[in-house]
Amino acid sequence: MPMVIFEVWVAGRAARPLSAIYAKTVTAALQQAKDIPMSSVMLPWTPSNPGPGTFARVSNPHIFLSTAQNGKLMLAMPEPVDVNALLT
Hints:
Helix content: 25-40%
Radius of gyration: 15 Å
Oligomer: single chain
Strand order of the largest sheet: 1-4
Strand content: 5-15%
């Protein structure tokens, strides 16, 4: 999934309960949202969670590590890695 499409999809997940989509209403929805289900793309997301230190805007520190096998991307491990633990 190209990054721009993914970003629109993520914003749509947060804005789903809104009756009108404006920058102000989407921002307010993101600030109030808790544990947005993200399907199998990533763990549930709370956009207002601050990251550590100088990475305060990293609201979802969990990543899935990938590896290439026979020309295809595969999960390197089944569970996500918490990048915050690596940065602190």
